[in-house]
Amino acid sequence: VTRHLLSVADLSAVDLEAVLDLAELPEPPPVLRGRGAALVFEHPSARTRNAAELAVVQLGGHPVAIRGEEVGIDRRETAEDVARTLACFHAVVAARVAAHGTLERMAAALDAGGVGVPVLNLLSEREHPTQAVADLLTIRQHLGGLAGRVVAYIGDGNNVCRSLVLAAALAGVAIHVGSPPGYGLSPADLRRAEELGGSVRCHAVAADAVREADVVYTDVWTSMGQDSERGARLSAFRGFSVDGELLDAAPPHALVMHCLPAHRGEEISAEVLESRRSVVWQQAENRMHALRGILLFLLRQGDPAPARGGPAPSDGREER
Ligand code: CP
Ligand code: NVA
User: Fold this and answer.
1) d(CA 252, CA 245)
2) Are 39 and 275 in contact (CB under 8 A)?
């Protein structure tokens, strides 16, 4: 069966460790030689698009980045038809979508057609799995290991937070979340993390969340697609900035992480973002290494199919 990566929890703990190791493989095999990778973006992107394009090139493949409006998911044709079309040409269909359900429909359409092409989530309103893999890679590189470490996530219980909490659960990293009332993770999210073996604590005061932190992590208060809530969010998140004062409550060795883009003066101060504790640029670069590891993992599942040699006719059903 084809493995898709829509949630980071589509990986097991063993899978996740394998992906992290693949991300650091010094000479990655060219599993995409002669093949394409479709990268669809319904929202803007700087890091994810560039990281994914370069990861595909490093694996010998040809990335095709596609703006949402070019294919018009559910406007020009259905999400299912977009997925089936892209899978005619590409070894993987990766997409950043406005609605997570779009990814699920794309994956279901490819499965129903027996197409054998994986769907990869490049961010939805629910999860950002490729980010979480890069985050764990960054933490592992800095702290030498993952199990038993403590990450404090300060701010919105959003897509980045959800994937980080689930990935941390798989890796044995404890998470202390600090969010204002109404903006934390849902009880269902917390249950899911616990089922994966995770240790998650929730705090209503940011300083309480960072006291034992090896890493203090934050993300924007208003995510893509939430612009109409921006005013309300700016006031709700007062007191949840990662600034010098908050870091005074954290252990002195604590690193600072942010998936970017950052809003200096909102969720993080300029001083902290630019400080020596901040590893945000390494974290950004690791998006590319993580994506390479993820693609290697998804494309080498089971018996890796040989690259298609040329323009041979196809009934569209064989494994790629
Ligand atoms: N962190 C991240 O996903 O950045 P982009 O939105 O620029 O891709
Ligand atoms: N939570 C942010 C992450 C951007 C990479 C968003 O969804 O806009």
Assistant:
1) 12
2) no
